[in-house]
Amino acid sequence: MKSRIKHEIVRVCRLLHKKNYLAATDGNVSVRLGDRVLVTPSGVHKGLMEADQIITVDLTGRVLEGEGRPTSEIRLHLLAYEVRPDVSAVVHAHLPYATACTLAGIDLLEPILPEVVITLGGIPTAAYATPGSAEVPTAVGDFLKEYDAILLSRHGAMTMGRDVADAYNKMEKLEHTARVVLAARLQGPVPSLPAAEVEKLRRLGKEYKGGG
Ligand SMILES: [Zn+2]
User: Fold this and answer.
1) CATH 3.40.225.10, applies to 2-208
2) Residue 6 DSSP class
3) 136 C-alpha vs ligand 1 centroid, how far in Å?
4) How far does residue 11's CA lie from ligand 1's centre (Å)?
């Protein structure tokens, strides 16, 4: 089980690098297994990382197994697991287009694309915080409870899922959304979906998640 999940983390890290969702040693991925968390190490290139470099920590971040240090964003991952018992995987990446939206002041919480309203509800932007510091989890704060994909101003994004593939898929969706919105903004203002349609899509989203 643990070995299989480590390989899934490696696959996702390689994909994140291949898709240019991060550069070099940026970004981090974790998976929760009960009271243990498997997490990527600090300072390792995500396209070149191997499964035996993944570190096991407890829910306070204490290293139980592995060499080196866990990612500097470990606090962000641990907070997500604390606040969201339904979440088993967290991905953090430095998405270029989505990060550009935060620099340009484009709010992806605006309901623009129907599938984003259905699957993610929306994509809020957390206030700027020094990367790797305790300010990051504080900035993300209450968004964690309500959203599975959150932009970090001038920094990147975090996504959460029931497994690492689910969290990765949300990252891909987020970046795709940012590309579409930025391309449309080059042509002029982008109108939001009408309120009645947003309501309908939110209901569909709840059914889709099995929330009734
Ligand atoms: Zn980062």
Assistant:
1) yes
2) H
3) 10
4) 19
